[in-house]
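pipeline stage [seq->struct] | target=3-oxoacyl-[acyl-carrier-protein] reductase | organism=Mollisia scopiformis | residues=261
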Amino acid sequence: MAAQQPKNLNGKTAIVTGSSRGIGAGIALDLAKRGANVVVNYTSTRGERAAAQLGKEIEECGAKVAIVQANIAIMEDLKKLIDAALAISVNGKVDILVHNAATGDDCYLEEMTEEFYEAQTDVNLKAPIFLTQLTLPHIARGGRIVLISSVSARMGMPQQTVYAATKAGLEGMCKVWATELGKKYDITVNCVSPGPVATDMWTECEPDVVAALQPSIDATPAAARVGEVSDIVPIVSFLCSEESRWVTGSTVSASGGMNFI
């Protein structure tokens, strides 16, 4: 019989961006199992179906869920996430904000366009900045902000000029926000940096990107494999809990040792 998750987030309200599938869905469900009410965010029709199913699973945990269609690259859509969180919050506050949504299409520098650059930076960097800004007036004392980075920020992989830069940017922002916002709002801010994880984003990567990473996968110290969603989720949940109160401004490697931080 599987052990039940501790209800250490009872009464909390969380926003998890990009949470209809993959790592985001895993995070949203685990937070619900720990007692949090959760805003599930999706953008596409494909995501809508997955979000509806996830919503049922969250409700089966006894938690409240708000399923919100929002393109986080559009400033006007960000407020929808805040409004949805406040509507299901028991204390009128947002306790947890997980910046998971990202776009990671591949492109060599010689083929780069301004449109490609903006499409990635709007989702991966601009959205976390301005969603956090909108959340601050409503964030609970003792709140948690977690940003999902990537080993790409540090590994110099081809075709990842913008993706790697945005993920490195999140790690830099994490330290700034931990310092700038920590005492003022009594919150912690941390990053989690996964390696390749067996999600749609990984399976849809260009074959040469996968091939370039294969030697690193084979040499990963913990095991010669890509990660699973279940490898990442508990780390994020810990950083959302009271037990992580003395951890802030950190980037936690969740890559099986593919990349040491």
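stage status: PASS
auto-comment: Residues 13-248 form a domain with the Rossmann fold fold (CATH 3.40.50.720). Strands lie at 13-16, 37-42, 65-69, 94-99, 139-148, 188-194, 251-254.
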